[in-house]
Specification:
heterotrimer; A alpha/beta; B mainly alpha; C mainly alpha; A: Rossmann fold; 5-stranded antiparallel sheet; 24% strand; globular; C: mainly alpha; two-stranded antiparallel ribbon; 12 helices; 4% strand
Amino acid sequence: MILLQTIDLSKQFGDVHACDRVNFTVNKGEFLSLVGSNGAGKTSLVNLISGHLAPDSGRILFEGTDVTFARIHERIRAGIARSFQIVNLFDVLTVFDNVALSIFSRERKIVKIAALADLDRDVRREALDVLSQFGLAAKSAVPAGGLAQGERKLLDVALAYALRPKLLFLDEPTSGVSTREKTQIMDTVSSVVRAGAVTAVIIEHDMDVVFRYSDRIVMMHEGKFLADGTPQEIRANKNVANILLGAPLSA
Amino acid sequence: MAADVSRVSYRPKLLLFAAATLVLVLLALLPLYIGLYQTQLLTYGLIAAIAALGFNLLLGYTGLLSFGHSAFFGIGAYSVAFLLRDAGIRSMELYILIGLPIVALVSALLGYICVRHTRIFFGILTLALSQVVWTLAYKFFWLTGGSDGLRVARPDLLAGMFTFTGGGAFQRFISAYYYYVLAVFAICVAVMWVIVHSPFGKALQAIRDNETRAAFLGLRIRRFRWVAFLISGTMTGLAGILWVPLNGLTTPEVLYWTFSGEIVFMTLLGGFRNFTGPIVGGPLFTYLKTYAVATTEYWQLLLGVVLVLLVMLLPTGIVGALSVATAKLWPKEKSA
Amino acid sequence: MSILIIQILNSLFYASVLFLIAAGLSLIFGVMRIVNMAHGSFYAVGAFVTAWLVGRAIALGVPAGWTFLLIPVGAAVVALLGIVIEPLLRPFYRRAEEYQLLVTFGLLLILEDVMHLLWGGLPLSADPVMDALPIMRIGGLVYPAYNLVVIGVGVVAALLLWAVIYRTKFGVMLRATSQDRRMASALGLNVGLVYVSAFAIGCFMAGLGGAIIVPTQTAVLGMGIDALILAFVVVVIGGLGSLQGALVGALIVSFVRTAGIQFFPEIELAVLYLIAAVVLLVKPTGLFGTA
């Protein structure tokens, strides 16, 4: 069942086609990887779908509804959430408050002005639950700015996950951390996401990670889709290998 | 600790409540030991604290520096003057009940325009719009008395239970009004404390820290800023309403942009990253300015030097510096 | 007809003074990225210094015609003041805007009282300079020739500033620093020198504005505070950091103000602030701004 579909989605920066008539589909329940070299247009595509950028042309359908020009909060209500490549947290607030904010927002309790945030037992329970799923419960009282890089990456994903989206975009959740931490982060993220039955699209450079965790892999190059298939199919695809090795396109 | 974190701990809140009550009791007892003049000065200080408390919801919690809060203070003050002159109202409660919606309306209107911008543009926009209000008050002299301002008589308190005429009226007014202002002050502190600790207050801080991420949690940034502006302006306006019976006169000076600068100053003096900062900064600034004006003709010079030194040496304000010092002296265990 | 000419001349007169103040404010913002709240006070210092010097000179028996030379001297004194102050502000360029505004607000308070301390609370006049030039007749109306000098100074200042910024090596350094101070520094530019020069030029212009206007009115306490807000209006309309913007903004403000005094005196200032607010809303970078 199709969850998200883009139709001829395009975005240009000057002469550069960040996305060139992209037709992208995400099926419900899959764990999909978006791969490609730097500047291939992966992050631009996620920015367009999440509402961070407005497309030049094309359409975005989510569960059959057109969200091409929906505002960011409307997309989040609809069930599209994302994490950020460059960690994007509320550094002065505690780890607990960071996640609690997500839950308050989702529950539409964020506008409550005459109640103390700490006294909401349901939100508190859920926030601690999310934090322990991500292995951050022990850090709940620490300001987010005081976490180590790996923990920050996890918290960034946790914020998006706590919105309980139908579709979760993870923009390089393992960039900037050591190889050992990469596995830890990916194990945590994939187990949480699969346990929560969330459809996930992950942007990743590390092909070992991609092959290990994905159900499907989509390869982008210069704003276009180059390949789309299961890990086995992608492994066998010559173009992909060439691009990954930096060789010119054979086509 | 980790096993039981899901249970809410009331202990720190009870301690805080006890400490606040203690301070309130001390403030209530103070007039017995200090003279009338000091009591009057302290009343001004509490009013300044209310103004700064309102202002700091924008600066400290929302990250927006307004250079136009004199407008709300002044509109509060002028509302009272108009209610007395044109409607013959002499009751303080009515001043507050009618004045608050007026300042709230103006705050909502100006806020709707100003929150379209942030950073320096927000500052200049608030400055420009507050100057519009100032020039109107200054130029429409038949309405506002121009630079002479409008006189305001001592109002009745608590629905006419206390009136102030005849011999010793001034003394009786100051003593009674101190408690009146203290009560309003306590309510304002409680209200603001709840606001900044509510989900809404947390959202403001999130927006201040990271606007982009806040948007990607589904927060409607501009709307939050607008409501923060509305509350902030209204509370500063309330301070203006309370100020004018004490001062007995309102002039366009309380609308001029340099008075906005003073509100910024007192907040910074206490510390804008603290809840208690503006509460301490308001009275402290009032004393500082009063003594500077009393001791030297060149009080602006003194205030200017204090301000520059403050920004250089104590950017987190007095409360900020004290809490850092306390944390160093008595490192306390972290509690969730 | 002649009244219209006089109104236009009045507007140009006013525009030229406003341009001098606003261009300095804009230049300092463009290079240092700080909004200098004390800028209006530099203009006031220029007026006080010049008026005081003129008073001294007349008392010493200097012929009124020679007192014209004291106008650039007054402006130069303000430039020197700027050279002293700029290094003190430098630690704040990288701090948050709140702190920049507050520290320059503190500087404003200090400067206002220093003027009070040095020259007392009474207005200071420099009439002899104006009286040294004849009164002209335009149609049936009289107009002081000195005002034409002020307009001329404004035009020359605008041309000179333009030439310095766009036609000299120093101007290239200035623009490079304003684009990217780290890059400029990496390319071996003496960024500190650029800062202090830009600040001094900005102060010189503000001081010149004060120096040329003081013969037509008096130097009074608080004139800088009023002028600052109008200069803000000018740069907001024209665009912070833009020279052309300061020029066009000054012209718009002056003509609106002259018309305002004529037709809607009560809301003349309010209209100006509202124009600034509307420009900020519609085009926050101003008519010519890029930042």
